[in-house]
Design a protein that fits this description.
heterodimer, A: about 180 residues, mainly alpha, about 0% strand, B: mainly alpha, 2 domains, about 75% helix
C-alpha cells in the first residue's frame, strides 16, 4: 500500500509539475520522471497492467495447448482401439499415463514460457509513467467488465438476480461504512 | 472400506489426463475404477472384469469431481451381478446428470463463490490470506465431493440416481445458487473501492468508461469474446497506445 501511495503521489506531482519540467527541459535538464523505464521494480498498481497482460497471455496459451494435448490423446486412443475395446488393463494404463505425460510436458512448456515472458516484460517493456497509468487503468476497467459480465451470465434470469442485488447493496454499504 | 477404494479415489484426481474427443473421460474413469474391479469373483481372469473396463473405456463423460460416483456405482453393479445390458444403460444414463449437476454445483456455484470470498478476504485482511482462504474453501468442497461421490456411488450401485436427487446434492445446489451471486455482489464494490483507492478522478473515470464499454462488448459478443480475449484485446491496445504515446 505504501508503494501505491508513493507512486500516485509521484504521478500527481508529475502532472502538477508540468511547468517546472518545461523549464527544466528548456535548460536541457532531463526530468527524471520523463525517462523511459522498464517495469522492473515498479510498485503497486503501476505493475498491475503488465502483470495482468502476462497472466492473460499465459491463460490463453494454456487454453489453446490443452486442445493440442487432447488431439494427441484422441490419436493415441484410435491407435490403441483394439486393446481398449478388449478391456485390456495394461493398454488402458499405457494410454492414460501417456496422456498424463503429454499434459505434464504442456504444463512445463507453458510455465517456462510464462516465466520468460514475465521476465521480458519486467526488463524490456518500455513504458513511461503516463503509459503505465494508462495500462493500469485499462486493466482495472477490463477486470470490472469481465467480473460484471460473468456475474450477469451466472445469475441469468432466475432468482440469482435478487441474491446478486442483495450482495451489491451490502457490499456498497460496507464500502461506505469503512 | 472396500479394498481398492483409496486407489480409485487417488486415480480420480487424474481422471482427465487421457481426455480426448472420441471417448471423452471414458479411459480415465475406466483407469480409476480398475482397482475396485480386482476383487471380482475370478479376479482379472473373470470375463466381467475385462467387459466392465471395455464398457467404461468407451464413450463416457461427467463432471470430473463426480467421476468417482460413476466409478463407484459402475463397479458396484459388477459385484451385484446386474445384467450387462442394464449396467450399460446405467452408464449411458449417468452421463447427462453427472455433467449438469457438477457444472451447476461447482463451475457455476462453488468456484465463483470461493473466488469472491477470497477477494473479500484479500481486501479486508491481506492478499496472501485471500489466496489461502480461496484454496482452502474451494478444496473443502472439491475433495469432499470426490470422496462423498465415490462412497455414495459404491453404496447405491444401480440406485445411484437416488443419491443425485437426494438431500445432500439438492441442498448443495440450492446453497450454491444463492451463495455465489450474493458473494460476488458483496465482493464487487469492495474490490472496486480497493483497486480505485489510489486513482485520481480522471483515472477513475477512465476505468469506469473502459468497464462499461467492456461490459457492453462482452454482453453483445458473448460467447465469442470470452473474458480472457476481452482482457487481451483491451490490454494489448492499451500497451500499444502507451508505447506509441511515450
Amino acid at each position: 500500500m505504501q508503494d501505491r501511495h508513493a507512486f500516485f503521489l509521484a504521478h500527481r506531482l508529475n502532472r502538477r509539475g508540468g511547468r517546472l519540467r518545461r523549464r527544466r527541459r528548456a535548460r536541457g535538464v532531463e526530468a527524471k520522471t520523463e525517462k523511459v523505464f522498464g517495469l522492473a521494480g515498479v510498485p503497486g498498481v503501476l505493475g498491475l497492467g503488465p502483470a495482468v497482460a502476462v497472466a492473460l497471455v499465459v491463460g490463453y496459451l494454456g487454453e489453446r495447448t490443452v486442445q493440442i494435448v487432447r488431439r494427441g490423446n484422441s490419436a493415441d486412443a484410435r491407435r490403441n482401439r483394439v486393446g481398449l475395446d478388449a478391456g485390456d488393463p495394461a493398454c488402458l494404463r499405457r494410454v492414460h499415463l501417456r496422456g498424463m505425460l503429454r499434459d505434464a510436458i504442456r504444463a512445463l512448456l507453458v510455465t517456462v514460457f510464462g516465466l520468460a515472458l514475465a521476465e521480458v516484460v519486467r526488463r524490456w517493456l518500455p513504458l513511461d509513467l503516463r503509459g503505465a497509468v494508462l495500462v493500469g487503468t485499462v486493466a482495472v476497467g477490463a477486470a470490472f467488465a469481465v467480473a460484471a459480465a460473468g456475474a450477469l451470465r451466472l445469475v441469468g434470469r432466475g432468482g440469482g438476480r435478487a441474491w446478486l442485488a442483495a450482495g451489491l447493496v451490502i457490499g456498497a454499504a460496507w464500502v461506505m461504512a469503512r | 472400506m472396500k479394498r481398492g477404494m483409496l486407489a480409485t479415489w487417488a486415480r480420480t484426481l487424474i481422471v482427465q489426463a487421457s481426455w480426448n474427443y472420441d471417448r471423452m473421460v471414458g479411459i480415465g474413469v475406466a483407469y480409476a475404477m480398475e482397482p475396485l474391479l480386482r476383487d471380482l469373483p475370478g479376479g482379472r481372469t473373470n470375463g466381467r472384469y475385462a467387459a466392465a473396463l471395455k464398457r467404461v473405456a468407451g464413450f463416457f463423460n461427467a463432471h470430473p469431481y463426480l467421476t468417482g460416483m460413476a466409478a463407484g456405482a459402475l463397479a458396484r453393479v459388477e459385484y451385484d451381478g446386474v445384467p450387462e445390458a442394464q449396467a450399460d444403460r446405467l452408464r449411458r444414463a449417468l452421463i447427462g446428470p453427472l455433467g449438469s449437476v457438477g457444472d451447476q454445483l461447482v463451475w457455476a456455484g462453488w468456484l465463483p463463490m470461493s473466488v469472491a470470498v477470497g477477494l473479500i478476504v484479500a481486501v479486508l485482511v491481506s492478499v496472501p490470506a485471500g489466496v489461502v482462504s480461496l484454496l482452502i474453501l474451494y478444496n473443502v468442497l472439491h475433495l469432499g465431493l470426490r470422496s462423498w461421490g465415490l462412497a455414495a456411488g459404491w453404496r447405491a450401485g444401480i440406485g445411484v440416481a437416488g443419491q443425485l436427487a437426494g438431500r445432500v446434492m439438492h441442498g448443495g445446489l440450492r446453497f450454491s445458487a444463492a451463495a455465489a451471486p450474493f458473494a460476488i455482489g458483496v465482493a464487487l464494490p469492495l474490490v472496486a473501492s480497493w483497486l480505485l483507492a489510489d486513482f485520481g478522478g480522471s483515472e477513475r473515470l477512465g476505468a469506469g468508461v473502459v468497464g462499461l464499454v467492456g461490459l457492453l462488448l462482452a454482453r453483445v459478443l458473448a460467447p465469442t469474446l470470452s473474458g480472457v480475449r476481452l482482457g487481451l484485446l483491451f490490454l494489448g491496445t492499451a500497451i500499444l497506445a502507451a508505447w506509441l504515446w511515450r
